[in-house]
Write a structure and sequence with these properties.
This protein is mostly helical. The protein has three domains: 67 residues, lambda repressor-like DNA-binding domains (434 Repressor (Amino-terminal Domain), Orthogonal Bundle); 218 residues, no CATH class; 49 residues. It has 18 helices and four strands. Strand 2 and strand 3 form a beta hairpin. This is ImmA/IrrE family metallo-endopeptidase. Belongs to the short-chain fatty acyl-CoA assimilation regulator (ScfR) family. InterPro entries: Cro/C1-type_HTH, IrrE_HExxH, Lambda_DNA-bd_dom_sf, Rad_response_metalloprotease. It holds the Pfam family HTH_3.
């Protein structure tokens, strides 16, 4: 008989789990090999699901099986209430993006609880700004606070090193940075500011150089106190323009450009070549698109020239390959050293158990020692 026995549960929980995960009746019916009519009978309570069907729904909806045995659906904030700025359409809320938002909200709540238990103020240590301020001046001030010079930035070996350093700079301000994968066309990143501590989420499927720009675009949202989902369709708003201008000046300062020999050569020739964009991209450890956009914001190229160069650039970009990461390295990529250190400190102080630590880090015990070695180095 296996797991074909029926289970008595509240059908409202199944409906809640499906809708919150972004699945249609048609999609889940096909996965369960049921007709849509048969599945509707399960959600309406006319028919009880088998335990095997429940396991499959837990797998597809990304929920633990235990949640289906609750007396009523758990109370979760609707996704849209976490953001002050939303895309014009809700098509961006794919299953993967919904899951990333849920994960981020969960880790944010865990971080807050652990910090409070350890007597740490979970509030972000950032100076609040507003849209009336000049984003260029704000970026210059924020950049100066880091103590990182352009000379140091350009000497970093690769963009992965650059991302790691910039991530630690932002996390030192009590802002947690997580990385989850979801379609790049859905969003490049988002931030959660409705609760403390502030959280920035970067799309791990994006190119590493693009992630660096997104990191500071989202940080601009943090200092403005305006949460959003950063997608391509939102690039024309005043808020997005402010955040883009901030990130551009922070990562590629105008003063640094004016001293760069390749940039000066461009100013003399007025001839925009992809070779120049590539050189500046490698030098400042940002994407080629970020360099091109920087030239446009500095009024060095016209809108038409920008769009033509961007189209040409996008055609030349290679398809990004997905690489397998060892569990301990994936944990660091996703959750960051700040969150990992917080969990480990909480375990050391007896605030949580080893079981809790493993659950929060989402890693098996056999990989924990390797994770400790990586965080310590």
């Amino acid at each position: 008989m296996g797991r074909s026995f029926v289970v008595d549960i509240n059908p409202e929980i199944i409906k809640w789990a499906r809708e919150s995960a972004g699945w249609s009746l048609e999609e889940i019916s096909k996965k369960l090999k049921l007709s849509e009519k048969e599945y509707k009978e399960i959600e309406s309570g006319k028919k009880k699901p088998t335990f095997k069907q429940l396991e499959l729904m837990a797998k597809y909806f990304k929920r633990p099986v235990a949640v289906f045995f609750l007396p009523e659906p758990p109370k979760e904030k609707p996704i849209t209430t976490a953001f002050r700025v939303l895309p014009k359409s809700e098509k961006v809320f794919s299953k993967e993006l919904r899951l990333a938002i849920r994960k981020a909200q969960y880790l944010q709540s865990i971080s807050r609880e652990l910090m409070e238990d350890l007597g740490i103020d979970p509030k972000g240590e950032v100076e609040k700004r507003n849209l009336q301020e000049d984003p260029i001046k704000v970026a210059q001030e924020e950049r100066k606070k880091t103590g990182i010079s352009i000379e140091e930035q350009t000497k970093w070996g690769d963009p992965h090193t650059a991302f790691k350093i910039w991530r630690s700079v932002i996390e030192s301000k009590n802002v947690f940075v997580f990385q989850f994968g979801f379609p790049v066309e859905d969003a490049r990143g988002f931030c959660l500011l409705d609760e403390e501590p502030p959280v920035i989420v970067i799309n791990s499927k994006d190119d590493i150089r693009a992630r660096i720009f997104t990191l500071f675009h989202e940080y601009a949202h943090v200092i403005l106190g305006i949460s959003e989902i950063y997608s391509e369709e939102m690039n024309d708003s005043d808020i997005e323009n402010w955040c883009n201008a901030f990130a551009g000046e922070f990562l590629v300062p105008k003063r640094a450009l004016e001293k760069d020999k390749d940039f000066l050569s461009f100013l003399n020739s007025k001839k925009l070549e992809l070779e120049l964009i590539e050189k500046l991209s490698n030098k400042f450890k940002v994407s080629k698109k970020a360099i091109l956009t920087r030239l446009k914001t500095l009024n060095l190229i016209e809108e038409d020239e920008y769009r033509k160069a961007l189209a040409k650039l996008e055609k030349s970009l290679p398809t990004r390959k997905e690489y397998y990461l060892l569990p301990e390295r994936r944990c660091i990529q996703e959750k960051g050293e700040k969150f990992i250190s917080l969990v480990l400190k909480s375990k050391e102080k007896g605030v949580i158990t080893m079981h809790d630590a493993i659950e929060y880090l989402d890693i098996k015990l056999k990989y924990l020692e390797k994770l400790l070695d990586l965080v310590a180095t």
